[in-house]
Amino acid sequence: MTDQENASKEASEPEKVRMGGMALRNGLLVHGPTHWSVAVRARSGEIEVASGPKPRLARGRIATTPMLRGPARLAEAMAVVPLVRWKLRSVRLPLEDPRVIGAALLASGASAFARKLAKGSATREALVGVIGLVPAVAALRDPNLAAYHGAEHKAIGAYESGGNAAETPKEHQRCGSNLIGPMLALGVAGQVIVESVIDRPGSIVRGTASLAATGAAVEVFAFAERQPGAALSRAVHHTGHEIQRLISTREPTAEQLAVGEAAVAELLRVEPSPADRTDEGADSEAPPMPT
């Protein structure tokens, strides 16, 4: 097939719905620009499905302004979680485990202790950032959560490529693991700068710096998606891929993959196609949603 024929084929294909997701302990949450869906494997063995509209936080200027649009869309994704838990009571969230709660409390105490070390130390801030990852690592000790993370990538990846979910890699180039490196590096830089300018910065100042670092990290994430061949993009994707390969994903069983496919199918049922959307939140400049 010639380049002209390939271009003509791509132009004739309908635009895909932009999806993000979150692995659950017994299923998968998927969200699009305006709606969410969830599918879980109930104790009875059946697949239970639910869906609904997303809270809209990224509107107007916020939806398209760099540094603001990323945190707003991440906040939208997080705001969906209690709605999912309320609508489908059989959902088991990643944090619903005493070990994860204990790890979160331990990480909080360790971070507070680390803050008392040398002022403005990049090493200290890097240590605080790494400590903050402990609860997520503890959650991923559950093999079902890691497997559903793999099912999420395979189901979404198959939809995006038009391929077979079982044959699609469990690592996805748009995985949220690609945010870890940029957020850690920018978070460390932000806190070091704050402490070099302000003596004993309070929680509001530190929180503002963290929010700015998050916004910048999402812009790096979006740049890597748009320009995958750039050196920065390759570094981001390589780090994220290795995190997925070694830690955060496992190959799902056929039953787990079926749950992932059910979640994607339900989202496609309720989410308007890009061609049919006219609302302000549909702006094409919005950063891609992590999977």
The major pleated sheet works out as: 4 strands, antiparallel
Can you tell me the overall shape?
A: globular
Q: Please identify the structural class as seen in this structure.
A: alpha+beta
**Kindly, what is the distance between the CA atoms of the first and last residues, rounded to a whole number of angstroms?**
32 Å
What order do the strands of the largest sheet run in, or round the barrel if closed?
Answer: 1-2-3-4
Low-confidence stretches: 5-11, 280-285
Give the number of DSSP strands: 4
Rg over C-alpha atoms, rounded to the nearest angstrom: 20 Å
Order of helices and strands: HEEEEHHHHHHHHHH
Output mean pLDDT.
85
Strand content: 5-15%
Supply the number of helical segments. Answer: 11
Helix percent band = 55-70%
Describe the protein in words:
The protein is built from eleven helices and four strands. The protein has 291 residues and is α+β, with helices and mostly antiparallel strands. It has a domain of 112 residues. Strands 1-2-3-4 form a four-stranded antiparallel beta sheet, sandwiched between helices. Helix 5 packs across helix 8, helix 7 crosses helix 11 and helix 9 crosses helix 10. It is globular and about 55 Å long.
Write the layout of secondary structure elements.
Elements: H1 3-12, E1 20-23, E2 27-31, E3 35-41, E4 47-53, H2 60-64, H3 69-87, H4 98-114, H5 122-131, H6 134-139, H7 143-161, H8 180-197, H9 203-226, H10 231-248, H11 254-270
Antiparallel strand pairs: 1-2, 2-3, 3-4
Helix pairs in contact: 4-5, 5-8, 7-11, 8-9, 9-10
